[in-house]
Amino acid sequence: MAEVTLDHVYKRFGDVTAVQDFSLEIQDAEFMVFVGPSGCGKTTTLRMVAGLEEISDGTLRIGDRVVNDMPPKDRDIAMVFQNYALYPHMNVHQNMSFGLRLRKTPKADIERRVQEAADILQIGHLLERRPRELSGGQRQRVALGRAIVREPKVFLMDEPLSNLDAKLRVEMRASISKLHQRLGVTTIYVTHDQVEAMTMGTRIVVMKDGLIQQVDSPVKLYDEPVNKFVAGFIGSPAMNFMIGGVENGVLRSANFDIRPTDELAGKLQKHDGKKVYVGIRPENFGLKGYTSIPEQDNVVRARVEVVEPLGAETHIIASVGADQNVVARVDPHAPVAAGDDIELLVDPNFLHAFDLESEANLRFA
Amino acid sequence: MIEQVLSALLAVVAAIGASVTYFYGSNWLLDRLVADRRAPDGTYVSRQRARDAVRPWLFLAPALLVLGVYLVYPVVETLRLSFFGSNGDTFVGAANWTWAVQNEGVRTAVRNNVLWLLVVPSLSTVFGLLVATLADRVAWGNVAKSLVFMPMAISFVGASVIWKFVYDYRGAGSEQIGILNAVVVALGGEPQAWITVEPWNNFLLMVILVWIQTGFAMVILSAALRGVPEETIEAARIDGASDVAVFFRIIIPQIFSTILVVWTTITIVVLKIFDIVAAMTNGQWGTEVLANAMYNWMFRGGGHFGRGSVIALMIMIAVIPIMAYNIRRFREEEARR
After folding, report:
1. CATH of the domain at A346
2. Which among A68, A201, A275, B68 is least buried, having the fewest CB atoms inside 10 angstroms?
3. Is residue A235 part of a domain?
């Protein structure tokens, strides 16, 4: 049980700064997810916490100890690797107990802990097998088991599910969440998959180019992204961005006129006459006639390009003007076909506007 | 000089030409002689099957012939000779074999071969592993590895000449040109005729082979080390393993099959060791080994085909189990892939 605190942490590889000014306080028992596109520095940060990369600058605390110069074996952490990193020459039992045996844990203790972990992960029948005799999902469970038996202060997980097929990934996602609830160990989880981040994290750190973009709970991240990058990264299908001008508090272009809420309009005052990104999530569109969103000053005129019926909902990919595409999530029974001209209604309560230059969300300006 | 080079070139060209002519020509002949044809009643008869049955043998024939003449026949002939007298014409029964068991010189050779077997493969493998492991940790590691590998390119006789200089002895009064004696003298010791000092001269000869084989072990083990997933090492470090524990409990087990291959390969080289001993001491001063003894009895001075053959067979018998083990392991490894 421990907090993990990163205080102005930097990682430089020669001239390249992989992680910049990373400050974060991870609470005890929190499930913290680092998410971002590849190369954003999330794995490097995790490896610094693990002690596999040196920290170039700043301080790292686990519990109340500064661990900057402490080798990994003394940090009391356990890590789950993307490629499982099981020891190929040991069977499952030996893999799981390796750390305990190194620490000269009493035999009975080792047996008990391995058995417990095996029960939790349902791998009791595999204990005698070698890693190469296991399927990907089973290997991942063993890797988790190896981390659990150590009863560490912190779990570090580096994209543990990315080598599994889609179905197994959903299953394992739930298993890991359950495991975390049951054990209550501080966990840092790195992923590039925003769905994993949203479904598992207590809080999420969104990173880009070595910089933290935003740290928040999943829902807050979704509803109140601080900038265009976070808005576009979190959510699937992604938020739509269209360029429009601010004219007397109304967002306007050749194809739409959208009157924002008074709150947003107030924030937009000083951008009057300038252009901004208008951000609308797919589900905040409605197809006129097939939505509960009332028609006011909120119409986007578009032409349907592709219709993707998913059963519960239908995604319409439509062009707005010559060079902008939007995705709208609409009623599956709406009669639309490619080539139709349609009117999409926007829910003004969920409207976002981003500065063209800084890409900051103007709601928080 | 030029003439020799030219005749060597000519031989190469002629050999390749003959091979090409044989394979191409025999193939062409086969297609001609066993061609498809029409039966008298006009139906078409394909003789593809017949051709397919013959073709592999056609291509294998030269290799089989060469193997037969230079491998199978000598083994049989050696076996025969081992029961005959010095000229290979009078049958003497097991006399040569009983001689080998009782002869002092053969015993020394067997003892030395065993020593070589214990020392050289172990040291070469251990040093090779050490260099392979440590060289990856320093910037000049690749230079070091090239230097360690270099002796591999030197023939055993060439290496012996080099080491003859290292062990060279000049009278106590004169200047030592051998580095070993130079060092000894510089440290205030007496110069020694090193290769005559029993029993240590044996080990001094072994050093030469270790010097050569370490490079071989290093290259193979270095490649194996690269194959050890970095993540397993990192996982072990996080699991609490020290560098030493990582090396012995994570890395070594993962490359163990390669270590065995290196070990057995060097063992086979050692069993056949001949050149170094022949060039350095010719088996004098208690450094005799089986291969050199065989050569001496067979072709040099000894002049006894029967005894030479017995010693040759002793070497073969010693190599066979290791060979068999190596081949079995190799097959197992292939099957696992």
Report:
1. 2.40.50.140
2. B68
3. no
Question: Is residue A287 within 8 Å of residue A342, measured between CB atoms?
Answer: yes
Q: Does A79 touch chain B (CB under 8 A)?
A: yes
**Confidence bin at A215 (pLDDT 50/70/90):** very high
Looking at residue B16, its pLDDT comes to 94
Q: For A85, which of B231, B253, B254 is closest by C-beta distance? A: B231
Considering only CB atoms, B239 lies closest to which of A51, A71, A102, namely: A102
Residue of B nearest to A157 (CA): B235
Interfacial A residues in 24-53 facing B (CB < 8 Å) = 50-52
Contact B232/A72, CB-based, under 8 Å? Answer: no
Phi, psi of B242 (to 5 degrees): -80, 170
What is the reported pLDDT for B337?
Answer: 61
State residue B33's pLDDT score: 84
Categorize the per-residue pLDDT at A229 as very low, low, confident or very high, splitting at 50, 70 and 90. Answer: very high
Provide the number of CB pairs (under 8 Å) joining chain A to chain B: 61
Nearest to B311 by CA among B279, B283, B280: B283
Length in residues, chain B: 337
Tokens standing for residue B195: 């290769």
Dump pLDDT digits (tens) for B55-77: 888 889 889 999 999 989 999 98
CB–CB of A52 and B231 under 8 A?
A: no
Collapse the DSSP code of A194 into the 3-class scheme (helix H, G, I; strand E, B; otherwise coil) and give the result: helix
Establish if A83 touches chain B: CB-CB under 8 angstroms.
Answer: yes
The count of structural domains within chain A is 2
Distance CA A153, CA A184 (A): 10
Radius of gyration of chain B (CA): 27
How far apart CA A338 and CA A324 sit, in angstroms, is 16
pLDDT at residue B196, rounded to an integer: 75
Tell whether A178 lies on the interface with B, counting CB pairs under 8 A.
Answer: no
Q: Is the dihedral of CA B302, B307, B309, B313 positive or negative?
A: negative
In this prediction, the answer to ipTM > 0.85 reads no
Clarify whether residues A171 and A74 are in a common domain: yes
Q: DSSP state, B186?
A: H
Query: Which pLDDT tens digit goes with each residue over B227-270?
Result: 889 899 999 999 888 888 999 999 999 988 889 888 888 888 88
Bridge partners (DSSP) of residue A280 are: A240
A78–B242 CB contact, under 8 Å: no
Nearest to A52 among B234, B241, B245 (CB): B234
CATH of domain B97-336: 1.10.3720.10
* Contact criterion met (CB below 8 Å) for A332 and A309: yes
pTM higher than 0.90 for the full model? no
Per residue in A145-184, pLDDT (tens digit) is 999 898 889 999 999 888 888 888 888 898 899 889 988 8
Domain ranges of chain B: 2-70, 97-336
Q: What CA–CA distance (Å, rounded) separates A86 from A178?
A: 23
The answer, for A85 touching chain B at a CB cutoff of 8 Å, is yes
Residues A178 and A120 reside in one and the same domain: yes
Q: Report residue A24: phi and psi, to 5°.
A: -160, 135
